[in-house]
Design brief:
This protein has 5 helices and 7 strands, in the order αβααβββαβαββ. By secondary structure, the protein is an alpha+beta fold. It has a single domain, classed as Gcn5-related N-acetyltransferase (GNAT) (Aminopeptidase, 3-Layer(aba) Sandwich), CATH 3.40.630.30.
Length: 160
């Protein structure tokens, strides 16, 4: 029985840095995760920037999730985090965020910023659990796709 269990068990995603080859998968996952998804051209431009760091989680040949930041001097801004629906609520975003923050710290980043929609409770819990704190708000910043807007909550985390 354990042979069958191991044979059909879902393997844990493998984390690594993303490359330009990941452009179509990242664009598709971003579009499936947000009201305004990024095009392949936008993702390709971001991935080609030397100041952008992107990590991916692969489940076999499928993209399970990614996190992307832009670095400026000793600060970084998390641009996006997305996890495929089939991998949500399994702790993957927490693992991606932890790896990403360690790598940013290794590159000399001292402070990380990000914005999250005020109604995005799973993201708010993720970032609060990782030590991010609210530092500002942008009123009516996000369009939820139905014509309604929500505030963006600006979060900060010092690494050192």
């Amino acid at each position: 029985m354990s042979f069958l269990t191991n044979l059909f068990a879902r393997a844990e995603p493998v984390l690594s840095e993303a490359t330009a080859r990941d452009t179509p998968a990242i664009a598709a996952l971003h579009a499936a995760s947000f009201a305004r998804g990024w095009s392949e051209d936008e993702v390709e431009r971001l991935l080609s920037e030397h100041s952008v760091l992107t990590h991916r989680a692969m489940a076999g040949s499928a993209l399970a999730g990614f996190i992307m930041s832009r670095i400026a001097a000793d600060e970084a801004e998390i641009l996006s985090v997305a996890v495929d629906k089939s991998f949500r609520a399994r702790g993957l975003s927490k693992i991606l965020l932890a790896l990403h923050m360690r790598r940013l710290a290794g590159l000399g980043v001292r402070t990380i910023f990000l914005e999250v929609g005020e109604t995005n409770d799973p993201a708010a819990q993720l970032y609060a659990g990782a030590g991010f704190e609210e530092v500002a708000r942008r009123a009516n910043y996000y369009d939820d796709g139905s014509g309604r807007t929500t505030d963006a909550v600006v979060l900060r985390r010092d690494l050192f």
